[in-house]
Amino acid sequence: MSIDLPFHRSWLEDDEINEVVDTLKSGWMTTGPKTQQFEEAFRDYIGCKHAIALNSCTAGLNISLALQDFEPGDEIITTPMTFPATANVIVLNNFKPVFSDIEKGTLNINPNGIEEKLTSRTRAIMPVHYAGHPCEMDSIEAIAEKRELIIFEDAAHALETKYKGRKIGNMGHTTSFSFYANKNITTGEGGMITVNDDALAEKIRVFRLHGLSRDAWKRYGNNGYAHWKLEMPGFKYNMADINAALGIHQIKKVDRFLKIRREYAQKYDEAFKNIDEIETLEIKDYAESAYHIYVIALRLNKLNISRDEFLNALQSSGIGVAVHFIALHLQPYYAKTFNLKPEDFPVATDYSNRILTLPLYPKMTQSELDRVINTVVELINRHKKAT
Ligand SMILES: Cc1ncc(COP(=O)(O)O)c(C=O)c1O
């Protein structure tokens, strides 16, 4: 099998490349002026008070939890339709992930199901803005307020996302973004945590670099050695300037990239809207999506082919695809450890069996987009069940 239309290609131009070269020539590789520049640009883009650069979104989620004084076994409610990182950090901090089923149409956590998952041990809700579509935050915030729960947002997919005109990155206690290679902007690997609380921001800055006193990154700089103080044991989660060099330029292109993503997603929607065998995802009135991934759900009862056969047929024709996601309650670790059954989360189970993600990125050409559409339509026509 040879994929000639890949699932993703990053859009990197001379300005990113020259900035990396400049970083290499400067002799300063790790957290430094370029990281600071990227943080400031990101903070301005989101419109929040603090943006702190990390080496992944997972680091942001983990710091968010590690800084809490919850008790071991305390519960955090999240969606099963997510990447393992979201729930893994809960487990690794000795808390319990409590999954709550998703809603049809957006595949986001269904706020109507959250209340019945609340117990005396519930401490937080971790919503994931799936595919870049915002969760229904008014309802989630109302539950959180009533029960004094903290909201930690997983915004790995949601760089450009707005909910009722409010930019994601301002609402939760912390919001974590990803700049992994296939994200809407990339630093190769990287993440950002945004917060509006000054004291929390300060703690995170210390916590991301071993727990050393602020500005310890300057310890081998031109101003000579300075003593640092260990304020608490922390992680090694800082972003390096080599990565930030990409971010500085990628963030300037975010609107240009989004425009193409939106246009391509709308072309897919238009092409599939009259095909009964394909369910496309819904964009709610309250949403401005980041269009991070383009997901379709096959109506398997109308087809004589499984999702995996469909996916393999696309790959055999040279088109890269993916699945976001096989829900976490179906993954061996979560199923076994928390005794979860497919029928516990019927909506997430159903979608897990029939979704697939088509290529969607600004570097893709119009003719590549047409090729994906034509191949999908051809496959559907070939595998429609006889009526
Ligand atoms: C929903 C979600 N959360 C978290 C992550 C982790 O991001 P990172 O690789 O930057 O740690 C991902 C990665 O793709 C993701 O899709």
Please explain how this structure is put together.
This protein has helices spanning 14-26, 33-46, 57-66, 84-92, 111-114, 137-147, 198-207, 241-250, 254-272, 307-316, 332-337, 346-352, 366-383; strands spanning 50-54, 75-78, 96-99, 122-126, 150-154, 162-163, 166-167, 174-178, 191-195, 278-280, 287-288, 294-298, 355-358. It has 387 residues and is α/β, with parallel strands linked by helices. The strands form 3 sheets. Strands 1-9-8-5-4-2-3 form a 7-stranded mixed sheet, sandwiched between helices. A 3-stranded antiparallel sheet has the order 7-6-11, with no helix packed on it. Helix 1 (14-26) runs antiparallel to helix 8, helix 3 (57-66) packs parallel to helix 4 and helix 9 runs parallel beside helix 13. The model has no long low-confidence stretch (mean pLDDT 96). The site of pyridoxal-5'-phosphate has 14 residues, from helix 3 and helix 4.
